[in-house]
Amino acid sequence: MKTVFITTQGCPKNKLDSQLYRTFFTANGWQNVTDYKEADVIILNTCALFTCEEERAVELIKEYQSGKKPDARLAVCGCLPLVDFGKKRIKEIFDGLIFTHDTRFELNKFINAQIKIEDIEAPNTFKETEFVSRNTFLSPTLFSSLDKVKFNKQLLEKIRSWSVAKSIYTYLIRERNSDEDKFFILISSGCTGRCSYCCMSAIHGRRFESKSADKILGEFRKGLKLGYRRFELISQDTGAYGIDINMTFPALLKMLLNEDGEYEIGIGNLNPRWLIKYFPELKQLLKTDRIYKVQCTVQSGNDRILKLMNRPYNIDAFKRCVSELHQEFPDLNLNTHFMVGFPSETESEFKDSLQLLDNIPFNSVFIYEYSGRPDTRSYNMPDQIPDAVKRKRAKKMYRKALLNLLKRKFKMAN
């Protein structure tokens, strides 16, 4: 039997695409394997959002080409081939099949498929263990006695490496953020935002298209019938749902929440502008006690930096909304992202983000250094921040997030 190895970088949408490819190969009589050295075909599904993901993809391409069986074939797909600089980078080291989500039909010819990929039903689930993780730096066994440790500020000061702080933090929030046993529903494609740092807005923003409410409801009911109890609504721009079909995101949520059964819904990638715009309706829907998570990516705690990022909201409005949510719904899983080291960000403006992290008890945060991407407006902005400063700020913020988490989780001593 022929074998295939598929690995993935990036977001749940990429992981769902990889699950589609895995199902496609299985339907055509191929066996999925966990070691690329055993595979007849290797599929690398890439991410282009961060420089570190691009570099990791390049490393993997080189590794797979040198370590694969002599007659094995490699194919590269995902978001990196969608951007000009990414495709150019790939072609410098690889001359095999390169495809995207929209050109995935090329896989049919690649393996002479009897069952075409367009005939495979799009998946709503995936296994987290089958994907490349950018957050796993340390073995979970090192934390087996974590709940017995008496944490204090002095102990935390001994954590010199920001990656260690990030690893401990990621491990501690793993249960609340695990994608295992979730049923994902992609509600739209494209993005209405034009963030100055995002290379993906040029791709996903070319056309925004909402999936029909009836189709989403059908997928939701399918998940319930299969026994799933935790659902997550995902998109590049979740809150923009419906603007092209005379509907709104709260209206979609209300429709789903009217369904009978035992379930809870998570909201992924909600831009703060939509949280602020729809706050009264969303707050009312949260009273159903069936929304367990809201991921609302703030990026910075400073209004000047947000304006440079082209993020259309202000911090005071965001703080009012999330503070109210935390007070009225203390069990709600509030997640956010912070970007540090955006061009011209001063130390004082960075401290605004630290202050926001202190003021709002987010359940989990993802912190990353600004990564200049070609063909974005921020790439050529003046006053680029040195890598060493960005790394120092990321470390400081992760240690702050870890300290806040430990205080809540273990009632940490001062």
Summarize this entry quickly.
The chain is α/β, with parallel strands linked by helices. The chain contains 16 helices and 13 strands. Helix 6 packs parallel to helix 16 (387-410) and helix 15 packs parallel to helix 16 (387-410).
**Largest sheet, strands/sense/barrel:** 6 strands, parallel
Radius of gyration: 22 Å
Give the total of beta strands.
13
Strand content: 5-15%
Shape designation: globular
Share of residues in helices:
25-40%
Total number of helical segments? Answer: 16
Structural class: alpha/beta
Mean pLDDT: 89
User: Main sheet: which strands, in order across?
Assistant: 6-9-10-11-12-13
Show unreliable segments.
129-143
Kindly report how far apart the N and C termini lie. Answer: 60 Å
Element order: H for helix, E for strand: EHEEHEHEHHHHEEHEHEHEHHEHHEHEH
Describe the structure.
With 414 residues, this protein is α/β, with parallel strands linked by helices. The strands form three sheets. The protein has a six-stranded parallel beta sheet with strand order 6-9-10-11-12-13, sandwiched between helices. A five-stranded parallel beta sheet has the order 2-1-3-4-5, with helices on both faces. Strands 7-8 form a two-stranded antiparallel ribbon. About 4% of the residues have low confidence.
Keywords:
414 residues, alpha/beta, six-stranded parallel β-sheet, 16 helices
List the helices and strands and how they pair.
Elements: E1 3-8, H1 12-27, E2 31-32, E3 41-46, H2 51-67, E4 73-78, H3 84-91, E5 97-98, H4 106-110, H5 153-157, H6 162-172, H7 174-177, E6 182-186, E7 188-189, H8 201-204, E8 209-210, H9 213-225, E9 230-234, H10 249-257, E10 264-267, H11 272-277, H12 279-286, E11 291-295, H13 303-309, H14 315-328, E12 333-340, H15 347-359, E13 364-369, H16 387-410
Parallel strand pairs: 1-2, 1-3, 3-4, 4-5, 6-9, 9-10, 10-11, 11-12, 12-13
Antiparallel strand pairs: 7-8
Helix pairs in contact: 6-16, 15-16
